Amino acid sequence: MRFEVGNIRVTRVRESASTVPLLGMFPLADAALIELHRDWLMPEYVDDVGDLTLSIHALVLESMGKTIVIDTCVGERPVPGYEALSNRETTFLADFAAAGFDVNAVDVVMCTHLHFDHVGWNTQFVDGTWVPTFPNARYLFNRTEYDYWDGGAGGFAVTFDTAVRPVVEAGLVDFVDESYRITDEIGFELTPGHSPGHMSVRLSSGGDEAVITGDMVHHPIQFVAPHWQMSADDDPPRAASTRTAFRDRYADTAVRVFGTHFGGSSCGHLRTNGDSFRFDPFTP
User: Fold this and answer.
1) What class has domain 2-178+186-281?
2) What InterPro entries does this protein map onto (predicted)?
3) Which of 96, 147, 189, 272 has the greatest count of CB atoms below 10 A from its CB?
């Protein structure tokens, strides 16, 4: 699926799609709220039985002559503690190539944060060694984020040693903060809470604007209920306040929102909806 944001071309390459029970994603959730908003949640974001749709995908940006991969999914690797996601065979690299991209021609790989489902294809296992999948790219990590997990925080960065450390050791990493710009059209927005150095990606080109959320938000219902935390939120109160500020900043604007785990087209606009909010899908 391809989108245009001004002169930037955005291509979604999906690794997997699934449904997740409401309380499995958000332990504090109230199913009555899903029912109240079912008119806009279905069928893009909630299925017939009330389970949430979930996507794991990368977004490939083409901007000013550069090819940029935002987040690299789970990959094919052991994921300690997550056997259902471990050692899965996927068509991700084949789909990446079918979309017209060459792993050797990628200029930049940017990880919004370093949880296992956002760093997986940073590396692949070749001849007994984890090697960079995108050997000619510069990998961008937030320094606060990297230092936190490198310090042994554990948690959801369980593939740090196989998907993150090898590209650092290969000399391919630049540590950046929210002031860094990949091109004149692509920068960052600090959105902490889900993880300490989490950054969303801001696009601005030709009068069009968009933002790629990363895991600042996992599902559109969190724009209605930003206090609904999920188990991977490192600092739940801060994550909730970040979501609230994001919602209030972008609701009823022309800025398109690309949800890194949203189902459907994964893209849409935030709108006020009476005294609440809704997320209207955008399909190119």
Assistant:
1) alpha beta
2) MBL_superfamily_lactonases (IPR051013), Metallo-B-lactamas (IPR001279), RibonucZ/Hydroxyglut_hydro (IPR036866)
3) 96
